[in-house]
Amino acid sequence: MNKDQIKGRVEEVKGKVKEVAGKVLDDKGMEIEGNIEKNVGKTRKGFGDLKEDLKDDE
User: Fold this and answer.
1) For residues 7 and 4, what is the distance between their CA atoms, to the nearest angstrom?
2) pTM for the full model?
3) How far apart are CA 43 and CA 8, in angstroms?
4) Cα–Cα distance for residue pair 49/28, rounded to 1 Å
5) Which is nearest to 19 in space by CA: 9, 28, 8, 11?
6) Enclosing domain of residue 17
7) The CA-based dihedral angle spanning residues 26, 10, 39, 24, taken in that order and rounded to the nearest 10 degrees
8) In sequence order, what DSSP letters do the residues of 3-56 get, joined into one string?
9) pLDDT digits 0-9 by tens, 1-58
10) Number of domains observed in the structure of the chain
């Protein structure tokens, strides 16, 4: 597991929490910000997965 995978997963979880908090508090801005953060985390995790796969192929 590399740092991009770890940071991506952490960011994804933080985004999910922020998104749910925004829904509960009826704060659209927080909800959207959480959704964006979640998706950025997914992307970073995917990048880390790709790096790991390329490293394994060598």
Assistant:
1) 5
2) 0.86
3) 7
4) 31
5) 28
6) 3-57
7) -10
8) HHHHHHHHHHHHHHHHHHHHHHTT-HHHHHHHHHHHHHHHHHHHHHHHHHHHHH
9) 899 999 999 999 999 999 999 999 999 999 999 999 999 999 999 999 999 999 887 7
10) 1
